[in-house]
Each structure stands twice: as C-alpha cells, then as structure tokens.
Design a protein that fits this description.
single chain, 331 residues, mainly beta, five-stranded mixed sheet, 7% helix, binds 3-amino-5-(pyrrolidin-1-yl)-1H-pyrazole-4-carbonitrile
C-alpha cells in the first residue's frame, strides 16, 4: 500500500498543512505533520467555544466508526510551551489515500492560546516514534507505525518547498522528486526523535568545510533551523548588516543584504545539502522594518540542534522507520 498528499505552506513557510480525513462519513481537517512529536491530536467538538477560532472540529459523535477509549487521556506540551490535552477515540484516518482503520485520534478538550490563534491549523499528526506518545494509561502508535506493516516500503518522505506546495509520500520513494543520490545516515530513536549526526558545515560556496559533529533532530514541526552558537556565529559573521538583537530574540540583518551566503550542511560520504541564502531571510522583524529575522537561530534554548523547515525545504528527506535511517537528497 502507499499514499501521497500535498502539503501547503502558510505565510513565511511558518508551517505546512495537509488535508486529513477522519471518521465515517469523513470529516476533513487540515493538520500539521510533525516529525518532532508523536501524538495525532485534533481540534474537536469537546472544546470550549472560547478556545476555537475558525478551526474545523472533529466530532466523534458524528462518526459511526468512532469508539471512545474510556479512561484514556492525553496531554502534550511542546518546546515552545504551547500545549493541548483531551480524550481519545479510535477511528478511521486517511491521509493521501492511505487509510488506517483503527487509529488513536486524540480529541482536544483544552488547547493553549497559540493553537487557538492559529486558525488554519486543526491539529497535528505526530510522526516521531511512538515511544513518546502521551496517551495514558497506555501510549498509542503513530499513524505511520499503524500503516507501516501494509506499506510497500517502511518509509515516508518529506518534500517541503519554499513558498509553494510540496508533498508527503508514504510507503515509497518517488525517484522523480529529487536529483542525484539519496545519502542515508543512521538515526537514534531512543528519545522518540529522528536524531542524527551531521559531520559539519560550510558557509558560502567558497568557504571551508568545518568538521564539527552536529547532533540534532529532523523536525517538520519546527519552522526555523536551530544550530549551535558557534555555527550561527560563523554564518552571521559573513553578513555585513547582521547583529544579534536581544529585543527581537535572535539574529537579524537587513532584508536586502547582498552578502547573505548559502549554508551547506554535511550528511555522509562527502554529501552536503545547500540551503540558499534566500531561505535565511525568514520574515520582517516588524511591520515596515527593513530588517529580517534570520532563518538560522541559536539552539541554546533547546539543548540540541533542530533541522526545521528552513533546512528541510532545501532537501528531499526520507524518514526510513524500517531501518531507522534518514535519507537526504538535493532536489
Ligand atoms: N516547540 C515546538 C515544536 C517542535 N520542536 N516540534 N513541533 C513543535 N510544535 C508543534 C506544534 C507547536 C510546536
């Protein structure tokens, strides 16, 4: 079996949403595929109205195939301190023509203001490893873990694009979606993340390769590229107008600065993925400002590097849960 679904970026590529069908008859919600967490949770009719702001709500009572898991609950808090919690139903879930008939659907009863404010986002599909699923008393499998046994190949791929729709594929690799070869690196799933080690980086096409191992996670649910301070310093020192602005919470530079270099990160066997300098102008710092917030920021607040959308949209990425590897290709 296999599946394929288009993803669509929101403004500034802050997140990528995809249509997901839940229940019978099907209820379509727009969800955020997040490889940095492992709960599939949705805005639902269980929420107080004050917590809803335009989102589409999953109504388990309107689904003939939903079964309430009595006594089961979930509660998740993300690194940015946003949170949600609620009850658990088993129901059918379809993403890109791939159906899991007995998926744990976590119906929200409470969401934090960040989620309420994000009116286009109806919830998340966590495609980290199930070991960090938050359902109690017994953790639940991710959508991919439930689908995996029936797939042609135990992989899903992420093809995120800058300012344009891309695609998530399940169960196969589309050889027309990338250029050159896919280079695989080992993944350590102990913490439930797609954690891997980059051998180093290079700033600018004429820069030297800096062999410093960077431990981090591939995370579609994080917008920016969060790297060690030493790497950020090496990058921003090459941009004439760059400075660290505590009031903005990070590195900024003049949006039109012509000195913004490309950034390359190593994967394996000498392969490097090139992130165009244009991806590093994340957004204007304030309305009418000429300064841009950098797409690369320090990981010091997190404690490990996060290869978020700014990096992932420069590559075709294979999440191979069969062999616990990540595959990287240019495109
Ligand atoms: N913080 C954070 C975070 C992360 N590291 N991966 N996904 C995250 N979120 C998904 C929805 C809100 C935050």
């Amino acid at each position: 079996d296999r599946g394929s679904v288009q993803n669509s970026p929101k403004l500034y590529d802050v997140e990528y949403l995809m249509p997901v069908s839940l229940g019978t008859p099907s209820q379509q919600l727009n969800l955020d595929l997040d490889t940095g967490s492992s709960d599939l949770w949705v805005f639902s009719t269980l929420l107080k109205e004050s917590m809803v702001n335009g989102q589409t709500l999953y109504n388990p009572n309107a689904s003939t195939t939903s079964d309430k898991m009595e006594g089961y609950t979930w509660k998740i808090t993300y690194g940015d301190q946003s949170y949600s919690s609620g009850d658990v139903y088993i129901d059918t879930v379809t993403i890109g023509d791939l159906t899991v008939s007995t998926q744990a659907v976590e119906a929200a009863k409470v969401v934090s203001e960040e989620f309420t404010a994000d009116s286009d986002n109806d919830g998340l599909v966590g495609l980290g490893f199930g070991i960090i699923n938050t359902v109690q008393p017994y953790k639940q499998k991710t959508f991919f873990e439930k689908a995996m046994p029936g797939l042609d190949s135990p992989v899903f791929t992420a093809d995120l694009k800058a300012g344009a729709p891309g695609r998530y594929n399940f169960g196969y690799i589309d050889d027309d979606a990338y250029s050159g070869n896919i280079t695989y690196v080992p993944v350590n799933s102990t913490d439930g993340f797609w954690r891997w080690v980059s051998p180093g980086f290079q700033v600018g096409s004429a820069g030297s390769f800096n062999s410093t191992r960077i431990h981090g996670i591939a995370d579609t649910g994080t917008t920016l590229l969060l790297l060690p301070d030493s790497v950020c310093d090496a990058f921003y020192s090459q941009i004439a107008s760059a400075e660290y602005e505590p009031s903005q919470g990070g590195y900024t530079f003049e949006c039109g600065d012509p000195t913004v270099p490309d950034f390359y990160f190593g994967t394996a066997n000498g392969q490097m993925i090139r992130i165009p300098g244009s991806y590093m102008s994340y957004s204007k710092t304030d309305t009418g400002s000429s300064r841009c917030f950098g797409g690369m920021q320090s990981d010091s607040g997190v404690g490990f590097t996060i290869w978020g959308d700014v990096a992932l949209k420069a590559a075709f990425v294979v999440f191979d849960q069969g062999s616990e590897q990540l595959g990287w290709a240019e495109k």
